[in-house]
Design brief:
Strand content: 25-35%
Radius of gyration: 17 Å
CATH superfamily: Regulatory factor, effector binding domain
Number of domains: 1
Order of helices and strands: EHHEEHEEEHEEHEEE
Number of helices: 5
CATH class: Alpha Beta
CATH topology: Multidrug-efflux Transporter 1 Regulator Bmrr, Chain A
Distance between the termini: 48 Å
CATH architecture: Alpha-Beta Barrel
Largest sheet: 9 strands, antiparallel
Shape: globular
């Protein structure tokens, strides 16, 4: 059984200090919307995405290509150039992700979508897409999400010292279960795609 979290250590692991890493494109099941983290829209999307991922797992098991469903991820952004802290959470945009193996095809996903949409209408909003962020700075954040800015500050200082600027969305990888882990014990990789700043 393929376990991506063990097979791709760099993708699912980060130190407790900023580091520069490189990632290729990978396939993900994704769903996008707007709303506060932990709000009803967000949690409904989380549930639908997990249902979809386990539907794909069941299909792959029947084909002899079983895999362990990896952890949830999220891309976050707001309109304009405003700092996210100045934007009410209900106006935050997000794309939720769960990575799947390279051998999962669009035809596999269409079969799963057709068979599961009757159980959850949100399944129709889920896509299979390739996402690649290239060069990134990342770091493990330990503790509550409302203290993430402390970790972001360290990442941004690392970027400034190396003449790097953000080149993509704020990316969170939820190593601990967002539904069942106490906030003080949460472990979240924070990742930012970067590029060299223009001089």
């Amino acid at each position: 059984m393929l376990n991506l979290m063990n097979a791709d250590n760099m993708y699912y692991h980060a130190p407790h200090y900023p580091e520069l890493v490189e990632f290729e494109s990978n396939p993900f099941l994704t769903i996008s919307n707007q709303g506060a983290p932990g709000g009803p829209v967000h949690l409904s999307a989380v549930q639908a995405l997990h249902m979809a991922a386990h539907g794909v797992k069941s299909l792959m098991l029947r084909e002899g290509n079983d895999f362990v469903v990896p952890v949830l991820e999220g891309l976050w952004w707001v309109d304009g150039n405003r700092p996210v802290q100045e934007v009410p959470m209900q106006h935050w945009y997000w794309k939720l992700l769960i990575r799947v193996p390279d051998y999962v095809t669009e035809s596999h996903w269409e079969e799963v979508r057709t068979n599961t949409i009757k159980d959850n209408p949100l399944i129709q909003s889920i896509n299979l897409e390739m996402i690649g962020e290239g060069t990134c700075v990342q770091m493990m954040h330990n503790g509550p999400y409302d203290r993430e800015q402390e970790t972001v500050d360290l990442i941004e200082a690392f970027m400034r010292n190396r003449n790097l600027v953000q080149n993509g969305l704020h990316h969170e990888i939820y190593i601990s279960d967002i539904m069942n882990t106490p906030p003080e014990k949460a472990m979240t990789i924070l990742r930012y795609p970067v590029k060299e700043a223009k001089i």
